[in-house]
């Protein structure tokens, strides 16, 4: 056994605490917009955990639903059998989803949702007699989780390179079609030329009839909040439709209200064929994801027994009762409190405050959409990411949680944030940026 204060024994990979074994940063509890650290300090959550705690922390309704479900039916086998809450949740999700997406596949994470979506796309073409469609196209700077499928289609080369081929037949659209810097643009940038032509070019290069699916985050989150130019997603939709290619939106971050509509598909008015979600589905409390599929796609390979045998897919914990109960209580909370549209109401004020940081030292770009914001900092020569990491540490010390990726600070507060809390967030951040980072 190990002593609780023997931090060496609790060494874990990939935590920021690795460098700080003597003074680790740990949370002991949380309520609504705030975390409390193990040393008793309050930290305003500027990131909704990891873009997931959309309704704020430890919401009684969600906590109670989990408690109740755990005491009533803890587990039901995911195959052949079931339980009513998984069905109830599927109905609720179908009602929330864009028109014509009435089928969901349950998963346990964003990464699993992405792998599920890619397999569904390949299975669909196969049963339609188009098995020659095997190529998957992602986007540079896209993030789709960390499983094999998501690592392959993801656009972060450093995440892929040590694994060699991963999935074959994967290509990536250049990210130049999403202007990396919006030069302090407010809202959605204008279409910077016919940027989606990159997709047309790649599709033509490979022979369109070999391409199965294109996967994009409607707004690239984890890699630095890259806002799509006007018309871009519609152009992708048109190109995919023209060539019989399925369009997958990875809505793991944008799903459940982040942009001010239930999904980015609603926000942009562009409906994909498949949509991946996770995070906000259960308010980040219990692992669960859901992949939404257009009826036509579902029916093509799930309505005949022979296809169902070929397409074996599901997890031990798919539609788990406790996760389903958490998701239902989360949806209730979103709906009762108007949280699925609240980001839209707060966006102008959030944008105003965010852009007021424009003249702080080292700020070279600001981007935002809904309740997502990014502040890009000028890198220190030879020490990439150091400035943003300094900002993270100073913010944390001053009671504010921000997320950094490279030299970019990302903000995605819980959707319950008040105007006063937005003021506190940006006051703290201004202090950090003015403090010689
Ligand atoms: N897709 C997107 C767009 C994401 O942002 C993430 C996580 N940040 C994932 C997939 C992976 O989700 P998870 O970490 O739950 O596997």
From TrEMBL:
InterPro entries: Aminotrans_3, Aminotrans_3_PPA_site, PyrdxlP-dep_Trfase, PyrdxlP-dep_Trfase_major, PyrdxlP-dep_Trfase_small
Matching SUPFAM superfamilies: PLP-dependent transferases (SSF53383)
Keyword Manganese included in the entry's annotation: no
Biological process annotations from GO: biotin biosynthetic process
Keywords carried by this UniProt record: Aminotransferase, Pyridoxal phosphate, Pyruvate, Transferase
PANTHER family per UniProt: ADENOSYLMETHIONINE-8-AMINO-7-OXONONANOATE AMINOTRANSFERASE, BETA-ALANINE--PYRUVATE AMINOTRANSFERASE
Similarity comment: family membership: Belongs to the class-III pyridoxal-phosphate-dependent aminotransferase family.
The protein's name in its UniProt record: Beta-alanine--pyruvate transaminase
Organism the protein comes from: Martelella mediterranea
Origin organism lineage: Bacteria, Pseudomonadati, Pseudomonadota, Alphaproteobacteria, Hyphomicrobiales
């Amino acid at each position: 056994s190990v002593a609780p204060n023997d931090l060496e024994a609790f060494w874990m990979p990939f935590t920021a605490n690795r460098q700080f074994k003597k003074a680790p940063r740990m949370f002991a509890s949380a309520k609504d917009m705030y975390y409390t650290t193990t040393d008793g300090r309050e930290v305003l959550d500027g990131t909704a955990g990891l873009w997931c705690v959309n309704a704020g922390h430890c919401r009684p309704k969600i906590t109670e639903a989990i408690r109740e479900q755990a005491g009533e039916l803890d587990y039901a086998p995911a195959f052949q059998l079931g339980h009513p809450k998984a069905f109830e949740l599927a109905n609720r999700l179908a009602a929330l989803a864009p028109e014509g997406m009435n089928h969901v596949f349950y998963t346990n994470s964003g990464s699993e949702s992405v792998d599920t979506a890619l397999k569904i796309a390949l299975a669909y073409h196969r049963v339609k007699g188009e098995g020659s469609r095997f190529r998957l196209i992602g986007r540079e700077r896209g993030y789709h989780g960390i499983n094999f499928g998501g690592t392959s289609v993801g656009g972060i080369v450093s995440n892929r390179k040590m694994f060699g081929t991963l999935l074959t037949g994967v290509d990536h659209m250049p990210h130049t079609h999403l202007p990396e810097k919006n030069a302090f643009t407010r809202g959605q940038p204008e279409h910077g030329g016919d940027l989606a032509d990159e997709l047309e070019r790649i599709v033509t290069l490979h022979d369109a009839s070999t391409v199965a699916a294109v996967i994009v985050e409607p707004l690239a989150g984890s890699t630095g909040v890259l806002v799509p130019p006007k018309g871009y997603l519609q152009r992708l939709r048109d190109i995919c439709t023209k060539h019989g290619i399925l369009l997958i939106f990875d809505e793991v971050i944008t799903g459940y209200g982040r942009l001010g509509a239930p999904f980015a598909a609603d926000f942009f008015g562009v409906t994909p064929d498949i949509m991946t979600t996770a995070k906000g589905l259960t308010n980040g409390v219990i692992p669960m994801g859901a992949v939404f599929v257009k009826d036509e796609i579902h029916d093509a390979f799930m309505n005949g027994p022979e296809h169902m045998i070929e397409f074996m897919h599901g997890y031990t914990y798919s539609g788990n009762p406790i996760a389903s109960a958490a998701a239902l209580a989360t949806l209730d909370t979103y709906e009762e409190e108007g949280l699925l549209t609240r980001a839209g109401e707060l966006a102008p004020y959030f944008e105003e405050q965010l852009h007021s940081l424009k003249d702080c030292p080292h700020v070279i770009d600001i981007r935002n959409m809904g309740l997502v914001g990014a502040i890009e900092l000028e890198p220190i020569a030879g020490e990439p990411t150091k400035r943003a990491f300094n900002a993270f540490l100073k913010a944390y010390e001053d009671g504010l949680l921000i997320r950094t990726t490279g030299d970019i600070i990302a903000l995605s507060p819980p959707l319950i944030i008040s105007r006063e809390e937005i003021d506190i967030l940006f006051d703290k951040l201004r202090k950090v940026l003015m403090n010689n980072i």
